[in-house]
Design a protein that fits this description.
alpha/beta, about 15% strand, 14 helices, single chain, about 325 residues
């Protein structure tokens, strides 16, 4: 039986405790997918606005060579600003040990690693086989254990639901790879729909298997809205017990090394869906909509998506109101 929504009851203090964590990935996943480079000052204003809205986990950068992703050339500077914001977990993506060393030196709280379930995408994205990436997870786990044991390490199993380069990705391989990453030292392993191939039935099936395999080390759902199923897939994951969801303000995002990968789930729409259900996110919707302003200012002319910002909040909608 799927878990029922946890509804706000009892005291105001109880109501303020979030039921789920929505992790904002726009400053990394979103910005790596656009041609323009957002000025550092605008990035910092955007991160500040997200934090002011109640977002408590942000993937702020990717530690990769600037010649490959010039949008991320200021990664260390962005991290050093973000870690000054109270209560914020600052994440960065690292594809290898060198990137992890730089991220740890900057002061990140959490490392995320892209480990592709698709053999073809792994070579295109990080120029390593899946087996080599598992060993990178092991090396980075040992590194952080030696110099920063408080830093968490997450493996994001990308192309877990299919791949535009390879096509079908066998589910057994996805679960086996997640287990290998956990064995290599990842604190958790989540599933990513990198190219928008997933459907709710598939999401339920894979996350059920992931939770059976990894228990509490089963990680986040990272869904794309490429084919319009992003919110439906997040709801399916929630029904299977997932409580951490990646999303991107304005729906920015995509993998530059996976043809057809576009459109992260829109943070604004995801927050509205859960709050309307009575599932607390800890994020103030009105302030979240305001956070679109520094995003637009930093990327003038870049398309920004979201049905909730376009339509507005429903008449009479009160976020966090008691529901019976």
């Amino acid at each position: 039986m799927y878990p029922a929504p946890r509804r706000p009851v009892l005291t105001p203090a109880f109501r303020s405790v979030p039921d789920i964590l929505i992790s904002e990935v726009g400053p990394r996943d979103g910005l790596q997918s656009v041609k323009a480079t957002m000025p550092t000052a605008d990035k910092l204003r955007w991160i500040d606005a997200l934090h002011a809205a109640g977002v408590r986990e942000i993937e702020v950068a990717s530690f990769v060579p600037a010649r490959l992703l010039p949008q991320m050339a200021d990664a260390a500077e962005v991290v050093k600003h973000a870690i000054t914001l109270p209560g914020l977990t600052v994440m960065a993506l690292v594809p290898n040990r060198r990137g992890a060393e730089a991220a740890l030196a900057a002061g990140v709280h959490k490392l995320t690693m892209p480990v592709s379930a698709s053999a073809a995408h792994s070579l295109a994205n990080v120029r390593k086989t899946r087996e080599e990436m598992v060993e990178e997870v092991r090396a980075i786990s040992e590194l952080r254990r030696a110099i920063a044991p408080h830093v968490k390490l997450e493996a994001g199993i990308s192309t877990a639901f299919g791949c535009t380069l390879q096509g079908d990705v066998p589910e057994d391989e996805v679960i086996r790879l997640a287990a290998q990453c956990a064995e290599a030292g990842a604190d958790e392993a989540g599933l990513s729909d990198t190219v928008g191939y997933a459907n709710p039935a598939q999401v339920r099936r894979l996350f059920k298997r992931l939770r059976a395999e990894l228990g509490p080390r089963a990680g986040a759902a990272h869904m794309h809205n490429t084919r319009g199923l992003g919110l439906a897939n997040c709801l399916a994951a929630w029904e299977e017990g997932v409580r951490t969801f990646d999303a991107s303000l304005g729906g920015l995002g995509g993998c530059p090394y996976a043809p057809g990968a576009s459109g992260n789930v829109v943070t604004e729409d995801l927050v509205f869906m859960f709050e309307a259900m009575g599932v607390r996110t800890g994020i103030d919707l009105e302030k979240l909509l305001v956070a679109r302003e520094p995003l637009r200012a930093g990327l003038p002319g870049e398309p920004v998506y979201g049905m909730t910002p376009e339509a507005g909040l429903p008449k009479g909608f009160v976020q966090g109101a008691l529901r019976v």
